[in-house]
Specification:
This is 2-heptyl-4(1H)-quinolone synthase PqsD. Keywords: Acyltransferase, Transferase. The protein is an alpha/beta fold. It contains eight helices and twelve strands. It has a four-stranded mixed β-sheet, sandwiched between helices. Strands 7-12-11-10 form a four-stranded mixed β-sheet, sandwiched between helices. α3 links the parallel β3 and β4. α2 crosses α3 and α5 runs parallel beside α6. The two termini are 33 Å apart.
């Protein structure tokens, strides 16, 4: 995580508009529950943190860099439109030239998709050990007149995927609602620097309906198919706001619901590996569910089971 801390009283948030839209909704009121978030200074980049997170993951897994044959993940927002600076991570870790680098531009479900693809490659016999690394530097790409900017923090996380893992994937569920394409976008608007935006119509619908109600339905279907309930799982979700997370907790009633929203804010695609790493040693449930939503619009959930149980 970056060393710089931004609290709710930071002057940068004084620009945020409080004007309601035609439906009477103020975007600022949708994004609550943060106390602090970490951020990068203007001359700092996220890639060194991605490299450091990856080194920590490799050390914890007792895996040497030369054993990694696939690198999944994404840097968001990258230095260039293309290539993605996941290649900088490859170089910084001195991974082998034979390591396949697979950038996944799938906000915000990149980590889940990387884990799923790594699992597929390993079970197919095409990979032995993979690394999934995600980094978010969104504080540098915010329009601080917009309410969602309240939640954003910077950070990076990584995980090693291999046959000796503590958890194994046993099922997954996904939903693609492509009619909501364009509801949430990162693009250049009034300046050359890209910023994030949630549209007042379809974007708010994605937040209040597709995400709020869709995630519990999808996870519940996944659990029911495996004869499980919320009481069997630890749940890690997207962390944009307590508005969403409180509803998901009430709907699913998970045994454990670890998060880092108050500490680090919304780390977008990095929320999942950061939260998993932060709480990894205290998660006691036999089953773990990772539930992500993402622009596009799409939602994905992975069901993992503790190995040997």
């Amino acid at each position: 995580m970056p060393p710089h801390i931004r609290g709710n009283d930071d002057p940068i948030f004084q620009q945020i508009t409080t004007q309601a839209n035609a439906q009477g909704i103020t975007e600022k009121d949708l994004f609550v529950g943060m106390k602090e978030r970490r951020y990068l200074d203007k001359d700092e980049r996220i890639e060194p943190l991605m490299i450091e997170a990856s080194r920590l993951a490799l050390k914890q897994a007792n895996i040497a860099p030369e054993a990694i044959d696939r690198l999944y993940g994404y840097t968001s927002v990258p230095e260039y439109y293309t290539p993605n600076s996941l290649y900088v991570v490859h170089n910084g870790l001195q991974l082998p030239e034979q390591t396949l680098v697979v950038p996944h531009n799938a906000e915000f479900s990149t980590f889940l998709l990387g884990v799923l693809e790594a699992y597929n490659a390993i079970t197919a016999g095409w990979s032995d050990h993979a690394l999934v690394c995600c980094g978010s530097n969104w504080t540098q790409y915010m329009d601080y007149t917009q309410g969602h900017s309240l939640s954003i923090g910077d950070g990076a996380g990584a995980a090693v995927i291999g046959p000796e893992a503590d958890f194994e994937i046993i099922d997954y569920e996904t939903q693609t609602l492509s009619d909501q394409y364009g509801a949430m976008t990162m693009q250049a608007r009034d300046s050359l620097r890209a910023t994030y935006k949630i549209t007042e119509d379809v974007g708010f619908y994605s937040f209040q309906v597709s995400a709020m109600e869709g995630i519990p339905k999808m996870v519940q279907h996944l659990l029911s198919r495996n004869k499980l309930t919320g009481r069997d799982i630890a749940l890690i979700t997207h962390q944009a706001s307590r508005v969403l997370m409180d509803h998901w907790q009430e709907s699913l009633q998970p045994r454990e619901y670890p998060d880092t929203l108050e500490l680090f804010g919304n780390l977008t695609l990095a929320s999942y590996p950061v939260t998993l790493a932060y709480h990894y040693l205290t998660i006691s449930s036999k089953y773990l569910v990772l539930a992500a939503l993402g622009v596009g619009y799409h939602q994905t959930a992975l069901l993992l089971k503790r190995t040997g149980s």
